[in-house]
Amino acid sequence: MTSPVTVSCGWATHTGHRRTLNEDSLLVQAPLFLVADGMGGHQAGEEASAGAIGEFAGLVGRPTVSLDEIRLAIARARARVDALPANGTGRAGTTLSGVALTSVDGVGYWLALNIGDSRTYRLADGEFEQITVDHSVVQELIDAGQLLAVDARGDRRRNIITRALGAGSVGEADYWMIPAETGDRILVCSDGLSSEVSDEVIAQILAENGDPQEAADHLIAAALEQGGRDNITAVVVDAVHVRMSPSGGEDDIDVDTLPRAEAAGGVQ
To answer: Which domains can be identified in the chain, with CATH numbers?
Structure first.
């Protein structure tokens, strides 16, 4: 069995100008393209993000994965991070965001997932959109009409997240099912990119660099130029070919986002 979505990808990661450790981890092996941003200090964040990503290793190499398989991997990742010992700076935790290749009746789909404030974007037919919704205090303020999106990047609360794997959080991940189309470009990144580089500049870099590796490298360079105050990771995935249904069209499938759980306090 072959994958319904043939992809080409590139990735880059950097410690940044101010950090001594890179606590970001990533998985770039079909059918999984994931980024985890660890927190906790004293290597706890590095262990949390790497441990979470490690729980997906058994799914690598398959043509597709299912939502149930992703949920089980996330449950294992949460248990693994929760088991890490606490230290003087608090309990270890990590974000997790990205896409998995899946299918419905043979048609290729992106299965996007997110917990925390790492992000997954999509560039398709010239339109750039953020697929995932940040689990953060500033996003909740934006949703409540108490903060303008344009002011969020400079808000002092921008690093406080409301859900994570570990760090005392019990919040669940969100999921989206999106029909894949040939020419789609997916970006998965840690907030070390999105907090330094505007969506407009990110979209321009993705549009101007046809090779996914060149695009990833340019994104990292842009974040470093803007200060590089955090670890930075970018994964760029291009849909080179997408298998269509036998009729040549798309099936009628409900692709609503699963609802958010109530946030239970912030995680720094």
So the answer is: 5-242 (3.60.40.10)
